[in-house]
Design brief:
Blueprint: E1 10-16, E2 20-26, H1 59-75, E3 82-86, H2 97-111, E4 116-121, H3 129-135, E5 140-144, H4 150-157, H5 166-174, E6 181-185, E7 188-191, E8 194-197, H6 201-214, E9 218-222, E10 233-234, H7 238-252, E11 256-259
Parallel strand pairs: 2-3, 3-4, 4-5, 5-6, 6-9, 9-11
Antiparallel strand pairs: 1-2, 7-8, 7-10
Helix pairs in contact: 1-2, 2-3, 6-7
C-alpha cells in the first residue's frame, strides 16, 4: 500500500515543479496521514493508512527545527525560493496553524527575506476565521479546486465530510478578494468502475465559471507526476493541458501556469 511521503516535520529543500527550490513543512504526523480529503491521486496515499503515532507537529519544536535549518542553509550559502506548507495531509487542520504561519514568516524574514511562504491547501478549512487570517499573510495562498461539478469533485477528492461541495469552497475562495492562487489537478482514468475525467467541455466550462467568480491572481494546472493510490489514473498529456489553459485564459483573462 502506498504510504506517507514525509517522515519529518521539516524536509528538503526539494525542487518543486511549480515553486522552485522549496523547504517543506509537514504539520501532520510523520508516520501517518490526517486530511479532510482522500484524493485518488494523493502522493501520500489514502487516509486508510491511519493517523500514525507521532501526532501533529508541536509549535515550539517546529520553530526550533526551522530556525536551525534556515541558519545552516544561510551559513552554507545555499539559496531558497520558497518555504512551503505541504506534507502528509491538510496543513490548515493544525490547531495552531495561524500561530505557526506567523512563526514561519518571522523566521523567513530573519534568514531568507527574499523567499516566499506558500501554503498548499485543499480549501476545506478556508472559511474558518483563523485560517483566513493566516492565509492572507502568506505570499502564495494556493487553494485547490479540481472540479466545480459536485459529483466529479466527490469522486476525485473524496472529502471526509458530506457537507463539502464545490459551491461552498467557491464561496469561501471568493472571500479572499483575489488574494489566492487556484490549483487544479487535471486527471483521467477510472475508479471502482467509474470514469474519472475533469477534462470534458462541461467540466472545463464549470471551472471557468468558478474561476470567474473567484478571480484568483493565477491558476495552476497540473497533472499526476508520481505513483497514485488509484492505479488506474493516467497522466494527461502536456499538449492537452496547454490547450485547456489557452481556453481558460481566453475566457477569464487570468494567467494560467501549466505543469506537465
Amino acid at each position: 500500500m502506498q504510504t506517507v511521503l514525509f517522515t519529518s516535520t521539516i524536509f528538503g529543500p526539494i525542487h518543486s515543479r511549480r515553486l522552485g527550490t522549496s523547504l517543506g513543512i509537514n504539520l501532520m504526523p510523520n508516520d501517518g496521514k490526517i486530511c479532510s480529503f482522500d484524493c485518488l491521486y494523493c502522493e501520500a496515499g489514502y487516509n486508510a493508512q491511519g493517523p500514525g503515532t507521532t501526532g501533529v507537529a508541536k509549535r515550539e519544536t517546529l520553530k526550533k527545527q526551522l530556525r536551525n535549518k534556515l541558519k545552516a542553509m544561510q551559513e552554507a550559502g545555499e539559496t531558497l525560493d520558497v518555504i512551503t506548507f505541504s506534507g502528509n495531509g491538510e496543513p490548515t487542520l493544525h490547531p495552531n496553524f495561524k500561530e505557526i504561519v506567523n512563526d514561519v514568516i518571522n523566521l523567513r524574514n530573519q534568514y531568507f527575506p527574499e523567499a516566499k511562504v506558500s501554503v498548499l491547501s485543499n480549501a476545506t478549512m478556508a472559511g474558518r476565521p483563523n485560517v483566513i487570517a493566516a492565509l492572507k499573510k502568506v505570499d502564495n495562498n494556493i487553494l485547490k479546486l479540481d472540479s466545480a461539478v459536485a459529483r466529479t469533485m466527490r469522486l476525485i477528492n473524496r472529502p471526509t465530510s458530506p457537507n463539502v461541495l464545490p459551491v461552498g469552497i467557491i464561496e469561501d475562495l471568493k472571500a479572499f478578494g483575489g488574494k489566492c492562487i487556484v490549483q487544479t489537478m487535471i486527471v483521467r482514468g477510472e475508479h471502482d468502475g467509474e470514469i474519472v475525467d475533469n477534462t470534458t467541455d462541461a467540466e472545463i466550462d464549470a471551472l471557468i465559471n468558478a474561476y470567474l467568480a473567484i478571480r484568483p491572481q493565477e491558476i495552476m494546472l497540473y497533472t499526476i507526476d508520481r505513483k497514485t493510490p488509484e492505479e488506474k489514473l493516467v497522466k494527461v498529456p502536456v499538449e492537452d493541458l496547454k490547450r485547456i489553459a489557452r481556453h481558460i485564459e481566453t475566457e477569464t483573462g487570468i494567467t494560467v501556469q501549466v505543469t506537465g
